[in-house]
Amino acid sequence: MGFFNFFSKEKKKTLDKGLERTKEGVFSKITRALAGKKTIDDDFLDNLEEIFITSDVGVDTTLKIIERLQQRVARDKYVSTSELNDLLCQEITDLLVGDEDEEAAPDFTLPKHTDGPHVIMVVGVNGVGKTTTIGKLASQFKKAGYSVMLGAADTFRAAAVEQLDVWAERAGVPIVKQKLGADPAAVAFDTLQSAKANGVDVAIIDTAGRLHNKKGLMDELTKIRNVMQKVVPDAPHEVLLVLDGSTGQNAFEQARQFVAATKVNQLAITKLDGTAKGGVVIGISDQFQIPVKYIGLGEGIDDLQVFHKREFVDSLFGNK
Predict the structure, then answer these.
(1) Stretch 105-130: mean pLDDT
(2) Alpha-carbon distance 189 to 103, whole Å?
(3) Which is nearest to 243 in space by CA: 194, 282, 295, 197?
(4) What is the distance between the alpha carbons of residues 312 and 295, in angstroms, rounded to a whole number?
């Protein structure tokens, strides 16, 4: 119990530190907008709308938040500035996709599959931290007691295979790879066959990090999916889209294209520690109705956290 408390405190410290720039950029502006006011009025709501939009929460999600606040003010007739913090926390938490009951489970817990490993197919453009996220995931799953295998199915760039190789070594897990230019689906097939034969718990498949035309992207990812299902019928169990949180609206566009191309059901938002645009987490989860599964808060191998929406919002607003 003592270790759990220590771990929770350390995790919260990492989260608070990682979101520091977003808190400074967003919530110091909210404090200034509130200065001298005794109640929430239209001028303040207009300022709040601008603050959220410029912090990459996104127009549609921002308008939802403002509308809910307006409804609350109209219903209660009076909402004091001191109540605003709790009110915003609740409204934003409600907008984030995900079941709060799931947050009670230990981090990095996976379901057990009887017909093979738990399969995670990772997608995203080059430069968003996709390979780094895979390496960190492998390390965290291994620490949680799972056996892990990586599949280097981004066969179009030598650097992609080399980088994944380095992360596999750092995490201490095996990797399946083929020569440059090999069929990505064949690599995925070999990875799952090996993982199944060796009783591996989780197989993580890297894919090409380029945004070519939508049909080409869809065809490639569909082929990988179909080939994997010959080994593990319900694979992949997770299609994890990795997005760079520091790119703001560009991350929205990437999400739009990948969601159109394949069945993305989980998100990982990286590089939140280096940006004031952490509001992108709220907007992307709301707009695409896909849960954020992981957030990246630093360069270290342990600086990847399972996303808990209440913890995230509390940290964002400086709640204890």
Answers:
(1) 89
(2) 33
(3) 295
(4) 10
% of the chain surpassing 70 pLDDT: 92
Please, which pLDDT band fits residue 7 given cuts at 50, 70 and 90?
very low
pLDDT exceeds cutoff 80 at 163: yes
Q: Which two tokens stand for residue 47?
A: 């300022």
**pTM attached to this predicted model:** 0.90
Q: How far is CA 3 from the centre of its chain?
A: 26
Place of tokens 């980088």: 163
**∠245-142-192 over CA atoms, to 5°?**
85
| Per-residue pLDDT at 5 | 41
Two tokens, residue 19? 């979101």
pLDDT of the residue at 193: 97
Peptide bond into 117 cis (omega under 30): no
What does the block give as tokens for 14? 């990492």
